[in-house]
């Protein structure tokens, strides 16, 4: 779930913050234009989209839009560029007025459920059957588009969390990449003692990045099983396992391990964080797969240094929590407007983004568009794709243990509290017990109301 | 070329409305035409202000999520507000913001305008310099100040202070940035008002031995009182609508230290999907500003400031 009111996915917002990355919002929305002629047979599909750069827009036009129009000439798609910060609101307003785009771009399950409840979205089950989406889209991702037993959205991309680091920094201080809590904390402690920031972090560019860290703490300290049980209502977020996890995480912040100091966490920007890792001023940076498109310019020739970056899986941060847990997240969704004059064409448009894994591989390599959650093999990625990028997606794709990100699997009010309350926790306005209790108190009614997104099997 | 003239007959024929003079009839037609000219504006205002405003009031009594329809919950949102710590905190921040905005930019602007009114050379240049911050896009001003105040490379680094990351300093800092962007506007308005003060008053005061400060207090301030009161009212209203600098510089943080009503409203409407509650907050904000405006209007009539 994307908590940005702007309709941006985290990945894309971050790219704006990092300045210069190509990736963009692929939650294209199609529609607007009246379709003369028979339903689904002719007319025009107007596509709304926002891009982080002109290069990304050009790439999308040349490689996706034109290819689609060539393949489906009867109802060609017309791209309309929208501003990130107003696209979601424009779409919401248009839908409320009974108009709006044919394809409804979604930022996550929360708004999706509201749209579905309002009758804005066309059920996609028949299209899924006809076009074979269930066979192509990864099962867990497909489930995030199910509301009240009906498929109403397709995921546009998938995400996870990982650690970026500078191998030279580890080597310089004689550290090896940590595999467990003891090793991780030992490095953090030693680094702090040496005046090095253990984990570069900050939310100055994007307040909602608080939840990236909370997602990591919940899954790597409390553990994914505990999170799953709580999300299913079989346990409570106020249980000791969560309180202890949050207390441990709070300690990381108050000791200055995250961002250098609590007050610095509020003013650290994303470029700063990558620069700190590149310069050896910070050891680790914990972020999502969207960071693959951001980190490059701060290293090597482009960054004016000879530093290299590498990624690693986030270690288990508590005994008993398995290693190699990869959080699951969906960065955006596409649905069909219930009032669409061209629902079949809209379905074709959505399907087109899932048809060619090689195209998605190129999109990742050439324009840094995160791939959709479809089965992709190594041969789908171009040979010139950075090995670090392909290996991260391969590791993530082969994950045996998965975690649950707050923006994909938590309901909206709970998610908002997790973000807002986190700042109160690390500044001492809330205790860990109070923070967890308020999460539980917020989550309970949402679970009862049936607005908790479905979990993967 | 001569100006067209209207010849009114000495004995205008009686009209069908009971012998009223024709002149009144013309006046009515003039009024009608005036109203016709106003129709587009009225339509726009009804469409984009009155109707959405009425809808906001309606939605404030519902649990509307912002999508689809909502259920009527009476005063539920308003009673919730009374116990909502975030609302109370945001309201306090708005009050602090108002006080800061009424003191710092007002005093600076009065001083700046008074000094400028005494300047004969390069006055336009100074006016321009003061006014420029007001014309710069907020997002640009915010970015500049964010860098200036940075604890890593800016003033914050020099002084060892994290202006935007410290809970105790953040609100004042953001209000200060707002003051910087805002005070030049006040200067220009005050200056225009001061320039309309009769110079003979200053000459007479000077002959009586009044110094610049006495002249400012006894002549300038009373003479520009309607402008001063109007800008005070406007500043209070704007203070309750404060949003942009807060949203860009701190997003309401750290830990809610700079949250104001508008950022709280925004978060409830678009993050919590509680548009009904957000509408109620909006209605309360409107009520606050309405009270201020009505008080101003009453004072204006009672004191006959425009007489």
From TrEMBL, chain A:
SUPFAM superfamilies: Periplasmic binding protein-like II
Cleavable signal peptide: 1-23
Keyword Phosphoprotein: no
Keywords on record: Cell membrane, Lipoprotein, Membrane, Palmitate, Signal
PANTHER family: ARABINOSE-BINDING PROTEIN-RELATED, POLYGALACTURONAN_RHAMNOGALACTURONAN-BINDING PROTEIN YTCQ
Pfam families the record matches: SBP_bac_1
Source organism of the structure: Asanoa iriomotensis
Organism ancestry: Bacteria, Bacillati, Actinomycetota, Actinomycetes, Micromonosporales
Keyword DNA-binding: no
Name listed for the protein in its UniProt record: ABC transporter substrate-binding protein
From TrEMBL, chain B:
InterPro entries on file: ABC_transporter_permease, MetI-like, MetI-like_sf
Region (Disordered): 1-25
Gene3D superfamilies to which the protein is assigned, alphabetical: MetI-like
Residues annotated as domain ABC transmembrane type-1: 91-296
Composition skew (Low complexity), residue ranges: 1-18
Protein's UniProt keywords contain Cell membrane: yes
Location of this chain's protein in the cell: Cell membrane
Source taxon at top rank: Bacteria
Record PROSITE patterns: ABC_TM1
Residue intervals passing through the bilayer: 32-54, 95-116, 128-149, 169-192, 228-249, 275-299
Keyword Transcription regulation: no
UniProt keyword terms in alphabetical order: Cell membrane, Membrane, Transmembrane, Transmembrane helix, Transport
Lipid bilayer topology: Multi-pass membrane protein
Cleavable signal peptide: none
Annotated family: Belongs to the binding-protein-dependent transport system permease family.
Name of this protein: Sugar-binding protein
Organism: Asanoa iriomotensis
Taxonomic lineage of the native organism: Bacteria, Bacillati, Actinomycetota, Actinomycetes, Micromonosporales
């Amino acid at each position: 779930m994307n908590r940005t009111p702007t309709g941006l996915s985290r990945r894309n917002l971050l790219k704006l913050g990092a300045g210069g990355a190509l990736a963009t919002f692929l939650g294209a929305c199609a529609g607007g234009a009246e379709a003369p002629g028979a339903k689904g047979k002719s007319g025009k599909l107007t596509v709304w989209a926002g891009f982080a750069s002109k290069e990304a827009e050009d790439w999308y036009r040349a490689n996706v839009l034109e290819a689609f129009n060539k393949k489906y000439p009867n109802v060609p798609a017309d791209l309309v560029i929208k501003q990130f910060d107003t696209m979601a609101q424009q779409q919401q307003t248009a839908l409320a007025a009974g108009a709006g785009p044919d394809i409804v771009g979604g930022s996550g399950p929360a708004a999706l459920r509201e749209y579905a409840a309002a009758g804005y979205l066309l059920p996609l089950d028949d299209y899924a059957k006809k076009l074979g989406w269930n066979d192509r889209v990864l099962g867990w991702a497909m489930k995030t588009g199910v509301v009240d037993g009906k498929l109403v959205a397709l995921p546009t991309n998938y995400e996870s969390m990982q650690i970026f680091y500078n191998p030279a920094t580890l080597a310089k201080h004689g550290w090896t990449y940590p595999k467990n809590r003891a090793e991780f904390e030992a490095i953090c402690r030693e680094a702090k003692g040496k005046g090095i920031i253990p984990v570069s972090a900050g939310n100055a560019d994007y307040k909602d990045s608080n939840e990236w860290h909370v997602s990591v703490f919940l899954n790597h300290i409390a553990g994914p099983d505990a999170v799953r049980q709580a999300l299913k209502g079989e346990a409570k977020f106020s249980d000791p396992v969560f309180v202890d996890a949050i207390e441990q995480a709070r300690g990381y912040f108050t000791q200055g391990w995250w961002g250098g100091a609590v007050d610095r966490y509020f003013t650290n920007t994303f470029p700063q964080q990558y620069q700190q890792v590149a310069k050896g001023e910070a050891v680790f940076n914990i972020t999502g797969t969207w960071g693959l498109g951001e980190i490059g310019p701060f290293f090597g020739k482009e960054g004016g240094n000879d530093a290299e970056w590498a990624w690693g899986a986030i270690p288990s941060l508590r005994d008993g929590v398995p290693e190699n847990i990869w959080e699951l997240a969906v960065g955006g969704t596409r649905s069909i407007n219930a009032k669409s004059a061209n629902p079949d064409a809209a379905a074709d448009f959505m399907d087109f983004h899932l048809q060619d894994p090689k195209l998605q591989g190129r999109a990742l390599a050439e324009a840094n568009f995160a791939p959709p959650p479809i089965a992709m093999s190594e041969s789908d990625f171009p040979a010139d794709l950075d090995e670090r990028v392909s290996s991260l997606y391969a590791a993530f794709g082969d994950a045996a243990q998965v975690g649950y990100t707050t923006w994909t699997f938590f309901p909206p009010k709970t998610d908002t509290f997790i973000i807002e309350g986190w700042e109160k926790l690390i500044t001492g306005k809330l205790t860990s017990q109070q923070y967890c209790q308020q999460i539980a108190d917020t989550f309970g009614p949402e679970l009862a109301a049936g607005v908790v997104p479905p979990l993967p099997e | 070329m001569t100006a067209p003239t209207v010849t009114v007959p000495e004995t205008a024929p009686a009209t069908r409305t009971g012998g009223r003079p024709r002149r009144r009839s013309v006046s009515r037609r003039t009024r009608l035409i005036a109203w016709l000219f106003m129709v587009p504006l009225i339509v726009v205002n009804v469409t984009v202000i009155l109707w959405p405003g009425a809808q906001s009031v309606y939605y404030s009594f519902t649990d509307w999520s912002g999508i689809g329809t909502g259920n009527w919950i009476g005063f539920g949102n308003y009673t919730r507000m009374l116990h909502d710590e975030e609302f109370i905190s945001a309201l306090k921040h708005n009050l602090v913001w108002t006080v800061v905005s009424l003191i710092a930019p007002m005093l600076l602007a009065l001083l700046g305008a008074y000094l400028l009114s005494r300047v004969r050379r390069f006055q336009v240049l100074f006016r321009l310099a003061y006014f420029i911050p007001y014309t710069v896009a907020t997002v640009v001003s915010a970015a500049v100040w964010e860098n200036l105040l940075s604890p890593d490379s800016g003033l914050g680094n020099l002084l060892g202070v994290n202006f935007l990351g410290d809970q105790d300093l953040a609100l004042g800092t953001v209000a200060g940035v707002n003051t910087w962007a805002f005070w030049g506007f006040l200067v220009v308005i005050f200056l225009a008002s001061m320039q309309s003060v009769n110079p003979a008053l200053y000459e007479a005061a000077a002959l009586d031995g009044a110094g610049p400060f006495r002249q400012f207090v006894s002549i300038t301030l009373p003479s520009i009182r309607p402008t001063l009161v109007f800008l005070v009212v406007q500043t209070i209203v704007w203070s309750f609508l404060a949003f942009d600098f807060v949203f860009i510089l701190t997003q309401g943080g750290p830990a809610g230290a700079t949250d104001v009503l508008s950022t709280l409203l925004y978060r409830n409407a678009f993050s919590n999907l509680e548009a009904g509650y957000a509408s109620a907050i909006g209605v309360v904000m409107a009520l606050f500003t309405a009270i201020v405006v009505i008080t101003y209007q009453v004072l204006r009539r009672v004191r006959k400031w425009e007489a």
